[in-house]
Write a structure and sequence with these properties.
heterodimer, A: alpha+beta, Ribosomal Protein S5, domain 2, 5-stranded mixed sheet, 4-stranded antiparallel sheet, globular, B: about 260 residues, alpha+beta
Chain lengths: ~240, ~260
C-alpha cells in the first residue's frame, strides 16, 4: 500500500507558511519565517568592520552566518546551548547557499553577519533558516540579484514528497534532500542528501523542489512588499 | 559619553526624560504565552518598549542531589544573543549573561515559587528538573525585569509532559497538569541611579549612562526575595530604601500583566 502522509498533505503540498520582515528593530535587517511548526528568526548586522583583521578580505565583504537552535526548541530533550558540530556545518552551508546571489564587492574589509535562531522546530530548519536569512539580507539592503528560497524534499517509503516534517524525516529508510534555489537564474545554491535514492527520483525531487520554492518565494516577496510597498520585481 | 551623560542629567534635573516619561513610568508592557508550544513545555514572550525577550521551559527527569533527595530543581540560563544587539558577540556566556541568569534564578528559587518537593517522583531516585532558557530578541535597556517576567510567565504556561509505561518522558504528548507554583508571584523591578535621581525601565541609552542599579525581586505581599546591586557607584542607605519602595510598587503593576 502506498505511503500516506500523516498530516494528510498531498506529496507536493507545503505546510502553512507565514513571513514578516523588520521584526528586530536593533538589526540592520531581519525576518521571521514559519513553515508548519518550524519558526526561524533571522537578523542581519552589517556591513560592519571585521575583527580580527586577518579575517578581512581586501577585495570584498565577508558573509558570516550563525545558526542556532534555542535550548527549548527541539522535539525531545533540551538542546545544549553553544555551537555543535551540526550547527557549525549548517552555518557553513548557509553561507555557501546565500553567497551566489550576494554582491559584497563594495564592502572590502567588512563583514555581513547573519544570525538565525530557531524558536520551534519540526524539521526543515536549515531551509527555513536560509529562507529567513535571505529575506533579512534583502531587508538590510545588501545588494543581491535574487532571494534564495529553500525547501527540504525527500522520500518516505515509495513516495516522493516536499517539505518534510519531523515524523517523515525520522521515518526509517527514508531520504532527506534539503535544497535552495535562486529562482530568477534557475540555479541550485544548496544541495544535501542523506539516505539512498536512484537518479530518476532525484530528478523528480529537484523538479518538485523547484515548484515548492516558487510557492515559498511568493511568501517571501509578499512579506517584503508589505514593508516596502510594491516596488519588488515579480518573479 | 560624558557629554551625553551631562545632557541627560540636565534633562533629569527638570524632572524629565528624553522620551518624555516620568521617572517611575515603564514603557508599554505585553506578555504573550505559548510562543513555542510544540517544542517547549511552556513558553512566553515579554515586551517592554522595544525590549523583547522569549523564555522557554523544558522538563527533564533526573536523579536528585544527595543532600535534597526529595526535591526537584530549576536551572535558569540567559543567553545574550548576537541577534538581539550589535554589541553582543558569539562565544561563551559573558559575565552579564551569567549575572542575569543567577539573579533571575534567585528570584524564583528563594521564594520557592516552584514547590520543589512536589517535583519529586521517587525520593532519592527520580525528580523533575525544570530548565528555563531565556533569550532576548531585541535589547533596548536593562534585561533583568523582562527576563524575570518572561521566566515566570513561561513557568505559568508549563504543562508536564507524558510519561510512558517505562516511566520515560514522552515529549510528543503534554498532560493537562501545570507546575506546582505558589500563589505569590516573584516579580523583578530594577531601579537605576543617575546623579541623585532614581528611575525605572531605562532604554539602552539611559542604561549605558546610568551610575548604578539595584534589582529588586518582590512578592505580592511586598516581601523581598532577591536583591542585586550593580554599577560602579554606591547607594546611600536611604537611597536603597527608596529604591526598594519604588521597586515593590512597580512590581505590583508588572504583576497585573501576567
Amino acid at each position: 500500500m502506498a505511503y500516506k502522509r500523516e498530516d494528510g498533505r498531498k506529496n507536493t503540498e507545503l505546510r502553512p507558511m507565514s513571513a514578516q520582515v523588520g521584526v528586530i528593530p536593533n538589526a540592520d535587517g531581519s525576518a521571521r519565517f514559519q513553515i508548519g511548526h518550524t519558526i526561524a528568526i533571522a537578523a542581519v548586522y552589517g556591513p560592519r568592520e571585521l575583527h580580527p583583521q586577518f579575517l578581512q578580505d581586501p577585495m570584498k565583504g565577508v558573509l558570516r552566518c550563525n545558526y542556532n537552535m534555542m535550548a527549548f526548541s527541539g522535539s525531545g530533550d533540551r538542546v545544549r546551548p553553544g555551537p555543535s558540530r551540526r550547527s557549525k556545518e549548517i552555518s557553513l552551508i548557509m553561507e555557501k547557499s546565500l553567497l551566489p546571489v550576494l554582491d559584497l564587492s563594495k564592502y572590502a574589509g567588512s563583514v555581513v553577519d547573519v544570525f538565525v535562531e530557531l524558536l520551534q522546530t519540526d524539521a526543515g530548519t536549515r531551509c527555513a533558516a536560509i529562507t529567513a536569512a535571505s529575506m533579512a539580507l534583502a531587508d538590510a539592503g545588501i545588494p543581491m540579484k535574487d532571494l534564495v528560497t529553500a525547501v527540504a524534499c525527500g522520500r518516505v517509503e515509495d513516495q516522493l514528497i516536499v517539505d518534510v516534517d519531523y515524523l517523515e524525516d525520522s521515518h526509517e529508510g527514508g531520504v532527506d534532500l534539503p535544497m535552495a534555489m535562486s529562482m530568477n537564474s534557475d540555479e541550485i545554491t544548496l544541495l544535501q542528501m542523506d539516505g539512498v535514492l536512484d537518479s530518476k527520483s532525484l530528478k523528480k525531487l529537484l523538479e518538485m523542489g523547484k515548484e515548492a520554492c516558487l510557492t515559498i518565494k511568493k511568501v517571501q516577496l509578499d512579506a517584503l512588499k508589505k514593508k516596502y510597498g510594491t516596488g519588488v520585481v515579480e518573479v | 559619553m560624558s557629554v551625553l551623560r551631562h545632557h541627560l542629567l540636565k534633562v533629569f534635573e527638570q524632572g524629565r526624560r528624553f522620551d518624555g516619561r516620568g521617572f517611575e513610568d515603564y514603557r508599554n508592557i505585553s506578555v504573550e504565552y505559548g510562543v513555542s508550544p510544540r517544542s517547549a513545555e511552556g513558553s512566553a514572550r515579554v515586551k517592554i518598549g522595544n525590549t523583547e525577550v522569549v523564555a522557554g521551559v523544558k522538563m527533564e527527569l533526573t536523579t536528585p542531589y544527595p543532600d535534597t533527595p526529595h526535591k526537584g530543581g530549576i536551572v535558569v540560563n540567559v543567553e545574550l544573543l548576537p541577534l538581539s544587539h550589535s554589541r553582543f558577540e558569539p562565544g561563551p556566556p559573558s559575565i552579564d549573561s551569567i549575572e542575569l541568569s543567577r539573579v533571575v534564578d534567585r528570584g524564583i528559587r528563594e521564594c520557592q515559587y516552584v514547590d520543589f518537593e512536589k517535583l519529586c517522583l521517587e525520593s532519592g531516585v527520580k525528580v523533575w528538573n525544570v530548565l528555563i532558557d531565556i533569550y532576548p530578541l531585541n535589547v533596548d535597556g536593562h534585561l533583568f525585569d523582562a527576563a524575570a517576567l518572561a521566566a515566570v510567565a513561561a513557568l505559568r504556561d508549563t504543562k508536564f509532559p507524558h510519561l510512558n509505561k517505562e516511566g520515560m518522558v514522552d515529549y510528543t504528548q503534554k498532560t493537562t497538569k501545570s507546575l506546582p507554583l505558589q500563589k505569590k508571584i516573584p516579580v523583578a523591578c530594577t531601579v537605576l541611579k543617575l546623579g541623585k535621581h532614581l528611575f525605572v525601565d531605562p532604554d539602552y541609552e539611559e542604561f549605558s549612562l546610568s551610575d548604578a542599579r539595584l534589582s529588586v525581586c518582590s512578592l505580592d505581599d511586598g516581601n523581598l526575595c532577591a536583591l542585586q546591586k550593580g554599577g560602579d557607584v554606591s547607594f546611600s542607605p536611604d537611597e536603597i530604601l527608596l529604591a526598594i519602595d519604588l521597586a515593590v510598587k512597580k512590581a505590583k503593576e508588572l504583576r497585573k500583566q501576567l
